[in-house]
Amino acid sequence: MGTVNASGQGPLRHGRDASLHFAHRLVILALVAGLFMSLGNVTIAAVGQGLGFALAGVTVFLTFRVLGFVDLTVDGAFPMGGAICAVLIFVGISPEVAMLAAFLLGMAAGLATALVDIIFKIEGLLASIIVVTAAWTVNLHIMRGQSNIPLLGKETILSRHSGDFRAWVVDQYGAEFRRHSTNLLEIILFGILVCIVLVILYWFMRSETGLAIRATGENPQMVRATGINHQVMIVIGLMVANGLAGLAGSLVVQQFGFADVRLGLGLIVRGLAAVMIGEVLLRPRGIGQMLVAAVAGMLVFDISRAWVFSALDLPPTDIQLVSALVVLVALGLPRLQDRWQVYRKRRRARTE
Questions:
Q1: pLDDT tens, residue by residue, 325-352
Q2: Does residue 8 lie within any of the structural domains?
Q3: How many Å apart are CA 109 and CA 131, to the nearest integer?
Q4: Is residue 131 assigned to a domain?
Q5: 69 in the Ramachandran plot: left (φ > 0), alpha (ψ -120 to 50) or beta?
Q6: Using one digit for the tens of pLDDT, what is the confidence trace for 269-285?
Q7: What is the predicted pLDDT for the residue at 235?
Q8: Count of the separate structural domains present in the chain
Q9: CA–CA dist 248, 64 (Å, integer)
Q10: How far apart are CA 252 and CA 50, in angstroms?
Q11: Which of 33, 130, 139 has the alpha carbon at shortest distance from 77?
Q12: Alpha-carbon gap, residue 114 to 37, rounded angstroms
């Protein structure tokens, strides 16, 4: 703790300074990302796609960092949310109701993993693999046996406003900006939604239940000693986290214009990369900054991948390879940096 001065403002000032440093790093990261996009001829579509997947990065942060639970359910909850959202929109249900259904179905997937872990005493990693495997069949049933459901001509949260927004963009900035109107609309709508979710989640994680969930991830023995049922906290944490994954799936489906049963393939690795990128670049302190860092990490991931494609002029068939390389860099660089620091300390110790 910092030293408290006569007015008792020491810790408060320290907290403000930490928040200010985080804000500075966030602004610098945004400027550098914008510069890379400009130099690499990367369109703003990468930002819109990053915002679509952003809540999946928050899911991974909640399960791995907050709960300390090795959970792969996001790979099943994400396409499950997308599947139910696409089916409901296809039959004429409003996109808002479809997105709520996606969130609830994602929560159900998280509940399934928690129950398998608690009731059958199966380790979290294996429990989530079982749920993800079953989710493939569940998704096919939701999609009525089809592996792909197009949303062409259906009303989504994007198509509802696209016409008016495109006309406004052309009127304000000229016809040459028409092709960017859809991407701008994605950034605005998804950005607003992600901010709302982060504010609600920040409030929840600072509530009594949220603090108990965080304590469960840090020290479950202490939580049990205080009389709190840590298993209930795990259930709630996994449900909230995977509910966000389902919601992210509903956003991406509306962004892509179709739902696919393979939509969440490898998403857990992408989410881990987003969390690591955000932590390394922004060095967050506190739950609020960590949530923002997870979102920022997902944006950096998508911009980096788009930059590699543009710089090397790669075909779309290489997307998985590029994604794997970006993930490798995101996960490997911090470890190489740690090893380098250890090497420098040992070398300094020998010279002394």
A1: 887 887 787 788 788 888 888 888 887 7
A2: no
A3: 7
A4: yes
A5: beta
A6: 899 989 989 998 899 99
A7: 96
A8: 1
A9: 18
A10: 10
A11: 139
A12: 41
Amino acid residing at 159:
S
Give the pLDDT band of residue 6 (cuts 50, 70, 90).
very low
Residue 50: give its domain's CATH number: 1.10.3470
Asked whether residue 12 is domain-assigned, the answer is: no
Task: Classify residue 4 by its DSSP letter.
Answer: P
Query: Using CA atoms, how far apart are residues 57 and 298, in angstroms rounded to an integer?
Result: 6
Cα separation, 152 vs 291, in Å, equals 34
Q: What is the pTM of this model?
A: 0.91
What residues make up the domain containing 24?
18-351
Torsion of CA 182, 187, 189, 192, to 10 degrees: -170
Nearest to 259 by CA among 101, 45, 130: 101
Query: In Å, how far from its chain's centre is CA 227?
Result: 32
Instruction: Check whether 95 has a pLDDT greater than 80.
Output: yes
Render 211-243 in DSSP notation, one character per residue.
HHHHHHHH-HHHHHHTT--HHHHHHHHHHHHHH
Distance CA 199, CA 129 (A): 31
5: in domain? no
Average pLDDT over residues 178-190: 91
3-class DSSP state of 338: helix
Specify burial of residue 66 (Cβ count, 10 A radius: 0-12, 13-18, 19+): buried
Q: Using an 8 Å Cβ cutoff, are 227 and 215 in contact? A: no
- The pLDDT tens digits of the residues spanning 25-68 come to 999 999 999 998 888 788 899 999 999 999 999 999 999 999 99
Q: Tens digit of pLDDT for each residue in 235-270?
A: 999 999 999 999 999 999 999 999 999 888 889 989
Q: Which amino acid is at 52?
A: G
Residue with tokens 């408290």: 4
- pLDDT over 70 at 315, yes or no: yes
CA distance 177 to 165: 11
In angstroms, the CA 334 to CA 155 distance is 44
| CA 241 remoteness from chain centre | 10
Mean pLDDT of all residues in 20-26: 93
CB 102 within 8 A of CB 254: no
Question: Tell me, what amino acid is at 351?
Answer: T
